[in-house]
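Q: Here's a chain of 734 amino acids. Please give me its 3D structure as tokens.
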Amino acid sequence: MKKCIIILLILIPGLSLAQSNIREIVFTHLSSTELLVGETLHFKSYLQSEQTGKLSELSRILYVEILNASGSPVYQTKLEINSGQCAGSFFVPTDLETGNYQFVAYTRWMKNFDEFFHESLTIINPYISQKFQQATVLEMNVQIAVEGERLLSNAKNKIVIRVTDQFQRGISRKGKIVSNKERESIEVATDEFGFSSFYITPDFDESYQLILEKDHGFEFIDLPKPCKDCIQLRVIQTADLWVIKSTSINPEDFTQGQVEVFKNQESVFSSPIVLNSALSIHKNDLPNGLLRVVYIDDEGKGQERLIWNEGAQPDENQSFGIYKTKSTVEEKFSALPASNLSISVEQVDTRREALGIFWYGEVGSKIDQILPHSFYQNVTENQLDNLLLTSNYTGGLENPEEVKYLPEYRSGIVQGQVTNRENETIIDVPVGLAFSGINRQMSVTTTDSSGRFVLTYDLEVSDGEPVIDILSEVPNVEISIEPEYYVSYPEFTNIPVVFDSAKVAAIVKRSINNQIMNAYYVEEKEGSTKAYRPQFDQVKSYKLDDFTRFNTMRDTFIELIVEVGVSKNEEKYEFKMRSKELVNGFYEEYPTLLLLDGAFVSSEDLMNLSPYLVDRIDVINHKYYFGKSIFDGILSVHTVAKDKGGIASKGMNIDLVPVQMNDKSPIVQVTQEVNSRIPAYQDLLYWDPAVYHTGGSLQLDFSTSDVKGMFEIRVEGISVDGNALSHRAYFTVE
């Protein structure tokens, strides 16, 4: 069922005042990006408003998948989101092969915009023989970007070159820029990240060519030609100002345009500008982080480019010194704002090459380029500008006029469509969703003019087998259900897993430590966190042990359940509820809803059930309303064993991935017990996904294990003002 966004904004609290603030983004902090089978991956996800950056309360369920190299899921789960946050874990099974996997997370609402979070995850299985392939032949891809999108004649133009392999990794290459007018060539050399930038001032009829070295020979690439009639947007950074210039090939053109600066989708600055002039904006007048500068000319045509406004440094990269094994670490980060945080402390071979939330949320999720963490540790203004100019992010995405998936604001959602065998839609028929677990629940709705339906379920009592059924006599109908997860993804970049002798030795040692720790592991048993809730209120219950039992269900209803009449016509049983409305003269009849252990059941199956298997019969003998659907009453039979007496549910069984309730966020830490002889070979020393920091210095207290080497402390989070935070520190255990 497609719903207009405007209608949704009226129906959903918190969205009615801001139609543009409807997009969500997800960032997930992984406890590690490289794991061995037998280890546990912990993760914390932050759901943010794309416009404000603040934690979003629009969705309540996060969909998580881990995909193998072919894009097939090896793990799926759903997490309950509380106030924009949730945490979970995944024990890596021993049947997974060594390779690169993708961790993917998104909400149902994000599927309307084809958006999701993803991060590469390396899993190593030392117990399965590795299939070593021949070394991959690296390809060379060249990208050329011009500031302002167009090359302007008789003006100074900045050009950026980026050279990468097929895995988006930067390649160092030398080359030169030559002109057809035999000017002196310009030497270029890409850095380790694949970037190089230079300036040219071309004549109107001049053309340039890049000659780039290859492993064998050269590659010749034409640069864009100067435009005949265009306008160029340039942004120059000074110590305190952003200088925005709009330039045309005609210096006498003073047409008025408009400059607008956006933070995500929110306009934060707007001003008219005259062509061939400059506009200065003080950096303090703009928010920190990634901004989009847009120039609109008098015809409504626009150009844009990204800038990074100076603010907090992306990575403090502190060093905390040297500690002994099985000792206490007491350190702190400098002043941080009030924020929701997650903290991990993990042994690393080198300083990690993973993006933090500060950069992933602001740059990485939009630019989606693979760059090592070392790039962001010491990035210069020019390097960062090169990255932004070569990005394919355009921003300003328009919201679709209609959406297919509703946000799971308070409850889980199942959507589908009812058709007949000729694929014609069936309208205005009641459709029900029932769970037959210990805590039973049911949802009923009616199909719309397109035959579509939306059913909801309570997350806290959604155990048991879910079944969907048509609750009226409609022949030859078929029910189709919208899949919970994405059916397909774009092709991800999977960098090959490479082993050398040092890596193999480290894996062997880590594998032995892991096996020792698993041998001493004691699982903590926890009771169910699902609260019991009665399925219906105001029922009259008949507990059969309180009466003389009869041999058949027909006799049981006739002799005991006075509110229900049973008739039989051509081998078909029919229940007639003697409702209160009927007694009071309201004669319009509706069907009686029949349930067995919370699931839909036919009258024939219910009558064929042995009464000796039945614990009690609940009756509601008055009109019961589910939206537009009306029933004369409800007859709910409960078996002693709660197994439906071996009778199959009426309707179509559906597969719903269970929701992990976010009742308790586990903290992982090394405990120091006096005179303990239990070994401590944890690589992950500390993990706390649920830290609320009130502001000021962040104190860290944890213990080391018997593992030696370099350790990384990683702090990720979102401030209460909606700013992303990412801090790292390193220490050594000897």
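Q: Can you summarize the key feature?
A: The CA atoms of residues 38 and 515 lie 8 Å apart.
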